[in-house]
Amino acid sequence: MARGDFVLASGRHSSYYIDARRTTMSGQGQALIGTLGVAAIRARGWMPRAVGGLTLGADPVAYAIVHAARLAGDSLDAFTVRKEAKAHGTGRRIEGCFEAGDAVVVIEDVITTGRSALDAIGAVRAAGGRVLGVLAVVDREEGGRREIEAAGFPVAVLVAVSELGV
Description:
Layout: E1 2-7, E2 13-17, H1 21-24, H2 27-44, E3 50-54, H3 58-71, E4 77-81, E5 94-96, E6 103-111, H4 115-126, E7 130-139, H5 144-150, E8 155-160
Parallel strand pairs: 3-4, 3-6, 6-7, 7-8
Antiparallel strand pairs: 1-2, 4-5
Helix pairs in contact: 2-3
């Protein structure tokens, strides 16, 4: 975590920045997040076919979870949601292991306003997917979780910012 004056993806200003990618893209972080992510999904009773979310923050988290699931003997795949559909090729907004009808868990690295998770949820639903809930690595506790839950989607969080001593 860094201190200073930062503009977040949400457009909000913050005196601290949580660069989750420093953890989610490290080998040690992948092992920990994958194991904790699988445990959180199981604890909720969610039975997804795939996990994924808005690129780039959700990608390494989803990959860590599917890898940990495979090591535990479970079958789980990953997908990624582009910020917008490609203008070439298949024109897909969702790439990877996703099909209409799939039950999924949307992944978020850091929840602030909830906008990224809700955007991913909208894309998944528009493509025929069924969202079981949202799993976030960090909740900044700035109202995003409340927004996601108000939209009807349960949220599981691995760590809240207050637990990090912020």
